[in-house]
Amino acid sequence: MSTFNAHDIAKAAKTAFQDSQLIPSSERAHALHEIRKSLEANKTEILKANEQDLQAAELEVKAGKMPETLLKRLDLNRGDKWDSMLQGILDVAALPDPTGNVSYASELDDELELYRVACPIGVLLVIFEARPEVVVNITSLAIKSGNAAILKGGKESSRTTTLLARAISTGLAKTSVPELYVQSIQTRAEVSSLLELDQYIDLVIPRGSNSLVKNIQNSTRIPVMGHADGLCSVFIDEHADVSKAVRVALDSKIDYPAACNASETLILHEAVVNTVWPSVAKALLEANVKLLCDPISLGALKELSPRPTNLETLVSPSDVSSYDTEHLDLILSVIVLPSLQSAIQFINSHSSHHTDSIVTESEAAASMFCRGVDSAGTFVNASTRFADGFRYGFGTEVGVSTGRIHARGPVGLDGLVTYKYMMKSKAPSGHIVSEFGAGKKQYKHKPINATAVPFLT
Amino acid sequence: MSTFNAHDIAKAAKTAFQDSQLIPSSERAHALHEIRKSLEANKTEILKANEQDLQAAELEVKAGKMPETLLKRLDLNRGDKWDSMLQGILDVAALPDPTGNVSYASELDDELELYRVACPIGVLLVIFEARPEVVVNITSLAIKSGNAAILKGGKESSRTTTLLARAISTGLAKTSVPELYVQSIQTRAEVSSLLELDQYIDLVIPRGSNSLVKNIQNSTRIPVMGHADGLCSVFIDEHADVSKAVRVALDSKIDYPAACNASETLILHEAVVNTVWPSVAKALLEANVKLLCDPISLGALKELSPRPTNLETLVSPSDVSSYDTEHLDLILSVIVLPSLQSAIQFINSHSSHHTDSIVTESEAAASMFCRGVDSAGTFVNASTRFADGFRYGFGTEVGVSTGRIHARGPVGLDGLVTYKYMMKSKAPSGHIVSEFGAGKKQYKHKPINATAVPFLT
User: Fold this and answer.
1) CB-CB neighbors (< 8 A) of B380 in chain A
2) How far apart are CA B349 and CA B407, in angstroms?
3) What ipTM score was computed for the predicted complex, to two decimals?
4) Among A130, A393, B63, B318, which one is least packed by beta carbons within 10 Å?
């Protein structure tokens, strides 16, 4: 989009952010509608560029330089992708404004009121791979939450993202939202320069592979919000109900094995090895799931009569690395442990602290699991696949965070806001701190019941 | 305290954290009382070690290797410091539990409930300089909020902090909180190793100089919560009341000039140069504040009749660096700007986004300032010195964050917690996602009114 250097881009983004603070949030929603119109008006041109990106990618795939799965993700004209991309803009526009809400309010003294109010973070740097519709998706989220954004897509989608970004700017130009509110860059060199500019950029959001996220975390002091991996597990407790165990274990694994919230490990309480496990194993094998079993779970399957038909082809012994592997496929590591306590310890050591589920009828076990497992999601008798912003009811999803700071688990628009404190004295002579202290005025700290700051116009 | 290496220390901290998750929060408050008792029982020994630290420091000061101000900060026997340190433990113990509160709850489907519940972050690495009582202060905050902590003090207080840490461990040993919940380390080498261990350490909290904070941010991918500097300003608007302007400008500067929330810059709307400014300047000069003035504000003072007596000694021209300097002393940079809008832009470019205040009688100007200034605190007719955890009513202060992610501004115990999502299905066959979708079940997303998770025992 731009021929500026990284410093100019970042500074322009910060200025655009600051200039936008006086614009009412209704104007930001209006901007989303203008962007949708502009994209629709440029549909033919954008899809032509996407076709060119696809043709170039096909050559790469044929030359063995690119995985074939990438073609699907690149194709903006596939199925209803275009229409659902545009509908997504309207969906985000219709969500409640995540800014302006008061989360703490206190009367510090007569006529001295303090409000903690949600506000945008500032400038987001979003780095993603392949799927060009992420440009549109992230733009919607950034504008809705009042943040400026700098977007960097994969080079394989550069023709498409350039035109998408241009159409977005055209839409923005019809509103009072600054035109440089959303900027798009194309080269990797610019990214590494941008990662140094912590005076302008407030948050980096990488959306892509583990290695992308780790590389970025290692090369910036700007906070990074991303999820590195999803190593989720299902624990079948000694008090598990068989049918729940079968349903939850199966859904967690097979509903969408490539997702970060799919389960990779099944943990069995030793009490269920000969009771619940055979039914669960049969269901998994019927669904063509490859099982990597520890000796006890493997032994139990070999003793079954009749033996499951595909035992020989689908079941094999696990090794020590199995329980630290994100399979992202129809593969499941299985281990037997002697107690709920040991299962919690095992999950805390081996899971990626994303989402883990217990199957149990015991309320005490459920409570202990939810307290003890140190993950963003701890579920009882429910599939790990529920860990998702849309399913949680956020209306949209910025990503899933396996970090613990600021946002954890599925992140909605709330993850793109921070807060500031506003204080106003209505006293005839204002308020100063030297009037307070021993023998002087004391702080009242009387809670105020407010959902918005009363003195903002 | 420990002869273990950094990896062992960090791993032990994480294990202690995870093991502590099933301990009720009442036991954590009990631990604080035991720690207070243990410190009191070892008072003589600790103060003797502190005396040794002081003697060693005095030699360093005499040799010109250490600033004399450090001696005051080191001395644990000075005034009521010891007693207020112990009282601080009881104060923190008595604060409301920051964990367990539900901030989002939704019925996703009949008999499928989701709760977002506050929980500790994990392992904190706290690095501080000089003041040994920070060991006790941070220990209280960490235990109260359910986090494990690794503490590293300055080498000038090592004898004191070693004994403080030992007394803390002795107190912890009398409770069910793991003994290695709080560990103390002494060498810088251990710190740099710890900063690499992001699999065990979840948050780094530096408390000290700007350079300490920046160095740490540059050398770790673990999130850092610290405040780098405090460059606060007061803007006197064209609609300012003279007496409020005098009081707020004076208190912001002179109440405690070395604090991060003291003002460093005074911005004058050009309309008040000959009206409000003379009174403000006279008050500042009477308080012995050195003024670094731009040409217009300087000119206005020179034209005053009678001339302020100490004009020659205290007033001098500013230079371009004045407005980016944290004076931390009785020095104030002064600049005249043509509008509220330009003042907001100036603050956003030059302040450290800590706290800025406007003096105005105009509600529109107050609102525009509070919205437009991109700082953690935006105040109206109130001193910048109010920006403080105790004054805000948090009961305690972890620090002041000029970062925007996770915690911003004065940070109370809430800054030491994150959240996790707990979900429970009560349906007879549990819950799986493949039952939802087009032509199948739809999500209800019905808000639940709850302050705690009902299924935790």
Assistant:
1) 422-425, 455
2) 22
3) 0.93
4) B63
